[in-house]
Amino acid sequence: MTPTYPPEPFRIKVTEPIRLIPREAREAALKEAGYNLFLMKAEDIFIDLLTDSGTGAMSQEQWAALMRGDESYAGARSFHRLKSAVDDIFGFKHFVPTHQGRAAENILAACLVKPGQYVPSNMHFDTTDANIRARGGRPVNLVIDEAHDPGNRHPFKGNMDIAKLRAFIEKVGVKNIPLGMVTVTNNAGGGQPVSMENLKAIAKVYREYGIPFFIDAARYAENCYFIKQREPGYENKSVKEIAREMFALADGMCMSAKKDAIVNIGGLLCVNDETLFQNVKNELILREGFPTYGGLAGRDLDAMAVGLYEGLDEDYLAYRLGQTAYLASRLTEAGIPTIQPAGGHGVYVNAGAVFPHIPNYEFPAQALAVELYREGGIRGVEIGSVMFAYLDPETNEWHYPKLELLRLAIPRRTYTQSHLDYVADTLAKIKSRAASVRGYKFTYAPELLRHFTARFEPL
Ligand code: PM9
């Protein structure tokens, strides 16, 4: 039974018009963009579920905070307001702001990763994966097997397989692992949470081997709310207390603030180690900006300071996770297979199962992304072989991800129940003509992060 749609814990004060352009115009727009939805004009999109990153609605308090922005080059009041929030919520010794999450990853990889070294995680997301590869490193995904089974309703499908982690460290040797990570929630694997029990076990293993432990914290607040809902012993703790417990396990974290800090731009890099912090600052100054603004305007720092607290609000989190659960349930009713249970920030349609006749090298999830736009002007994002297949430099063989997914990411505080109903109804229409849909081939693809700029042709 579909859960009740949660009433939004806000009302709408500003609106932004959206429109569905005619079918022929959608067809022409697809062709012009080389069938890559990243290359389309946003004005040609009706409902945009490409990403929940930087696409949410800021609150009245955040807009007010923008006006307080102190644009001093060094030591701005905005920095100190952000520092007070970051220290309070995360509790690391040091931090720098960055312009977004990948900038924090780049700095971390520049400071720690040498060619040939490995960085284990449950699953790295695309930019983390690419930043490690860009330094000659090897990202390694050690998520539990249940993560690859879309129907398995394990409550913490983002967990790392601790036995695999130990075996991996023993196999490649500690000296070849400059840092270990975990992504909360696990975006590449369905927005699934990691339990506190698993986080403690991960921290224990990394500590035992002397490997610095970093959390990719893009959606930490959603992860902590799942812990509160699903993990015994946490039901009476606040999400903020759970977050403090989680970060106390790690040596640092990198975070795209465009997700759970509900800002349009921004990121954070936190560390405990003094020497690493010095190196981080030097790298930051070279690439981003002075350590008290890190590539952002003072007003952005203020919006982030407010958004960090709003992202922890439990009424908001209940509504947010209720919204994704509602969409997932509507799709299940329509017979559309999705990763179960629903993720925190989006619903992941199992495109490989919608189009079983399209092989992974003809990109079934890309085909579904194109159909969703063609049918209803809706933009999702492929999380499958376009994004994650890679050529192994040692064996010269292509490796394909285990699942071909179309992610429908829900921007924060942006769309309503009727928008989500429209998405579910549109997917149901595509399902009824699924057998006639064909795959795609590349006409252009760069080596790293190819999903952003690749072009395709229908087969
Ligand atoms: N995630 C997302 O849509 C935006 C880029 S890909 C369309 O999910 C994690 C877990 C992320 C993430 C971005 C980043 C990078 C790091 N870790 O986009 O650079 O999901 O702020 O963050 C995107 P930035």
The CATH fourth-level homologous superfamily of the largest domain: Type I PLP-dependent aspartate aminotransferase-like (Major domain)
Q: Are any ligands bound, and if so which?
A: ligand PM9
Estimated share of beta-strand residues: 5-15%
* Gap between N and C termini: 38 Å
- How many domains? The number is 2
Kindly name the structural category.
alpha/beta
Compute the number of helices. 16
3D shape: globular
Number of strands: 16
CATH class of the largest domain: Alpha Beta
Helix content: 25-40%
For this structure, the CATH topology of the largest domain is Aspartate Aminotransferase, domain 2
Spans of at least 5 consecutive residues whose pLDDT stays below 50 are: none
Characterize the structure shown:
With 459 residues, the chain is α/β, with parallel strands linked by helices. It has 2 domains: 23-52 and 314-458, Alpha-Beta Complex (Aspartate Aminotransferase, domain 1), CATH 3.90.1150; 60-310, 3-Layer(aba) Sandwich (Aspartate Aminotransferase, domain 2), CATH 3.40.640.10. The chain is built from 16 helices and 16 strands. It has helices at 23-32, 60-67, 77-90, 101-112, 126-134, 162-172, 196-209, 220-230, 239-247, 274-287, 298-310, 314-333, 351-354, 364-376, 385-388, 417-432, and strands spanning 47-48, 94-98, 118-121, 138-141, 180-183, 213-216, 252-256, 267-271, 346-350, 378-379, 381-383, 390-391, 398-399, 405-409, 440-444, 455-458. The strands form 6 sheets. It has a 5-stranded mixed sheet, with helices on both faces. Strands 9-14-11 form a 3-stranded antiparallel sheet. A hairpin with a 6-residue loop joins strand 12 (390-391) and strand 13. It is globular and about 60 Å long. Ligand PM9 binds at residues 51, 53, 100-102, 125-128, 183, 187, 216, 218, 256, 258, 267, 381, 409.
